[in-house]
Amino acid sequence: MPSIEAIKKCVICGLGISFLPHSTVKNEIERKELKEISTTIPEKNVSIYTAFHKDKYVSANLAVFNEIKSQV
Q1: Whole domain around residue 34: which residue ranges?
Q2: Buried (b) or exposed (e) across 48-67, using 16+ Cβ within 10 A?
Q3: What contacts 62, CB < 8 A, 6 or more positions away?
Q4: How far apart are CA 33 and CA 30, in angstroms?
Q5: What's the domain count of the chain?
Q6: Most exposed: 19, 33, 57, 69, by fewest CB within 10 Å?
Q7: How confident is the model at residue 72 (pLDDT cuts 50, 70, 90)?
Q8: Tens digits of per-residue pLDDT, 18-53?
């Protein structure tokens, strides 16, 4: 997703769940737009995936992220 705001809007609309820093969702949790879900998943086991259209523009941020991700 292009931004944390886009991720939050998708979750609010019921399109799925996400792992986000608490500071980015604090207001939505207080307004009961989002719900915090506890998990026992250790942080080291969380996977990160990216999806983008092969024929579309790839921003510099996404290119660097994909490069770093491929080195891990």
Answers
A1: 4-71
A2: eeeeeeeeeeeeeeeeeeee
A3: 50, 52
A4: 8
A5: 1
A6: 57
A7: low
A8: 988 889 999 999 999 999 988 887 766 666 777 778
Please tell me whether residue 15 adopts helix, strand or coil conformation.
coil
SS3 percent helix, strand, coil of the chain, rounded to 5, is 45, 0, 55
Residue 63: what residue type? A
Residue type at 65 in one-letter notation: F
pTM: 0.57
What is the number of alpha carbons within 13 Å of residue 30 lying toward its C-beta? 6
Q: Is 13's pLDDT higher than 90?
A: yes
